[in-house]
Write a structure and sequence with these properties.
Radius of gyration: 20 Å
Number of strands: 9
Helix content: 25-40%
Oligomer: single chain
Number of domains: 1
């Protein structure tokens, strides 16, 4: 038994050492080549460009933010997603381990309507996603965490089964780029780019005209409509989660 434990410990140590040697610069070329493939096929996505650009400008995420569960969106770069459809995503931290997951069917073109609604709200009215059907499910969904993490000078590196991820942070947003851990031996490794808003405050990077002031105006309008509904329907019951504060704080 002792020999078995020592063997497992040695394997874990080797895994951590290999992870520590990884950094985003090692895979940056893979991401750029994949984007060029899409461009040659006439496929572009301004949201993808925003995430990649912001990731490149970001710094290493603070540990306190790394350890928060979150919900967000992602774009899968693979043959399964020729049109660069945006999918929902969830980030889970539990017992010092991490899970980073794209949510939805393998082919993003088959996203059901309630997932499309979530994505649209995340891109344009992020303060409203607490009322979407998918948000409620994501908050309650329990996902097993297996990813170990270590830090280098520029990012945290997460080693999950079959995947390596690089995590950075900028202006209240967490950015992640994931790639097959065997990317050096694959012609077209699967790549996923993620972004997660750390709190409801601040601007929405996707809706460039969406200042905090505009967000507050929409909230005031929604609250006003909400009070009107209460007066008109005395038994009206509000299931809305207030500003995502419980889910994203």
């Amino acid at each position: 038994m002792n020999n078995t434990i020592k063997y497992v410990q040695i394997l874990l140590l080797i895994s951590l050492q290999l992870t520590a040697q990884e950094n985003y610069q090692n895979v940056k070329k893979n991401i750029e080549e994949y984007i060029q493939i899409y461009k040659r096929e006439g496929k572009t996505n301004k949201y993808l460009n925003t995430i990649i650009s912001n990731f490149n400008e970001s710094k290493k995420i603070e540990l306190k933010d790394l350890k928060k569960d979150n919900v967000g969106i992602c774009i899968i770069l693979s043959e399964d997603n020729p049109d660069l459809i945006i999918s929902p995503a969830k980030y889970t931290f539990y017992e010092e381990k991490i899970n980073i997951s794209a949510i939805g069917p393998q082919n993003p073109n088959e996203l059901p309507d309630y997932m499309k609604e979530y994505v649209q709200k995340y891109l344009t009215e992020i303060e409203s996603i607490g009322g979407t059907e998918l948000f409620q499910k994501l908050i309650l969904k329990k996902i097993e965490t297996e990813g170990t993490f270590i830090e280098n000078k520029t990012e945290y590196v997460v080693n999950e089964p079959n995947t390596i991820s690089f995590i950075r942070e900028k202006d209240n947003w967490m950015y992640i780029i994931s790639i097959d851990d065997d990317y050096k031996n694959l012609t077209n490794p699967r790549i996923i780019v993620y972004c997660f808003k750390n709190s409801i405050s601040g601007k929405n990077i996707f809706n460039l005209n969406d200042s905090l002031e505009n967000t507050e105006k929409r909230k005031e309008k929604k609250l006003s409509k909400h009070e009107e509904d209460r007066k008109m329907f005395p038994l009206y019951h509000d299931f809305r989660i207030d500003d995502l504060r419980e889910g994203l704080k």
